[in-house]
Amino acid sequence: METNHNLEKIYQLVEQFDYNELIDADKSFVLTQMTVNEYQNMHDTINESKNYFANKPEILPDDSILKSLSDKKRKKNIVVRSLNYRMQLYKVAASILIILGITFMIFYKSNPGLYNQLTIHDTIYIKKTDTVLSMIKDTIQVVKNIIVQAQQVTEVKSVNTLFANNIIKADCNKEICPSDVDKITRLAGTNNISKDSFLTDFVVSLK
Amino acid sequence: MQSFSDEQLMRIYQDEQDNQRQVAFDCLYHRYAKAILQFLYFSLNNDYAKAQDFLHDLFVKIIEKPGSFDSHQNFKAWIYRIASNMCKNEFRRSAINQKYYSHLANTSEGIVIESETEKKLHTCICQLNQEHRSLITLRFKMNLTIKEMSGIYECPEGTIKSRLFYATKELTKLYKL
Question: What share of chain B is helix, strand, coil (3-state, %, to 5)?
Fold first, then answer.
């Protein structure tokens, strides 16, 4: 069986040498693969093929091909080249940033109030201390809030009415209740807080 | 430009911003158009018109996709590989083509056959299958080395020698009958 290696060697020999030009070792090798006649026929065919091709007149490319290719190149220059134009990445990034910046500026100018954030701080921090005076102040603050809430009710009612109808539920240990009005009045009477004009006014207004 | 290697010219052509690229392309065309046309002509069973069309199409491919050439490979092997693949595809297309090319084998359009020996050899070469005909053409007409052919077919030199052996054996069988 012919191995590839043997075929390679035989091809080298048959292309270059006539059988009679081979050395004895090569002749022996060739004869293990094919007959003398087969070898010689192959060698002759190769030589005749070379002559056949060598005698052929050369064919020249048609002039119209180069002209057509030039037209193609020109078309490519206009259409494809503009699409394939290479640009550095930083230029692309800078262009995008500029476009975005201009767009934002135009949009912001046409809608100036859109980005003004409105913040509402509606948390009331009540600082609890152990002193009587600060407790009273805190209480007053809570009462003020209650009054404000009460004013928001559609039907305007007095604080007492609100308490009576359970609209406002207050913890009387921490917040002022109707029952506390007398106590405050008495406190005001003992002059413990008489110097606090604000408290005095408040007690008067409650009365 | 004339002193530049094929690969250098192709690199210039690949650079879109190089104003010498058109000159580089024309230089490559003049270097290879004639040789590729000969190869196409014999591979396509002496179809002169089709060989011209294929030559045109091949260079259009280079214009449209210059990036398909890897600048580290051999340009000659690359362009012959494209031409060889175009012929291979052409013969794969249909049985109608096979009949057409068999007809061409007997007419030998475009060339003058002097002797009976040449006529017989011409017929035998045309009767070879496409791969064997391309191998014979590259080796005996284009005078490419085994190494160059191994670059075109992307296989070891030993494989090319084996294939050439079988191609020559088939041609001998047809020719010496």
Answer: 75, 0, 25
Distance from the B63 Cα atom to the nearest Cα atom in chain A, whole angstroms: 7
Give domain status of residue A120, yes or no: no
Model pTM score: 0.61
pLDDT above 80 for A24:
yes
CB contact under 8 A, B42 and A53: yes
Per the structure, how many domains does chain B have? 1
Nearest to B111 among A12, A57, A69 (CB): A57
Candidates B38, B140, B164; nearest CB to A59: B38
Most confident segment among A123-127, B82-86, B119-123: B82-86
* Residue B147 belongs to a domain: yes
In a domain, residue B1? The reply is no
Q: Which sign does the torsion angle of CA A26, A27, A33, A36 carry?
A: positive
In total, how many domains does chain A have? 3
Same domain, residue pair A48 and A16:
yes
pLDDT, mean of residues A55-59: 84
Which bin fits B42, alpha (ψ -120 to 50), beta or left (φ > 0)? alpha
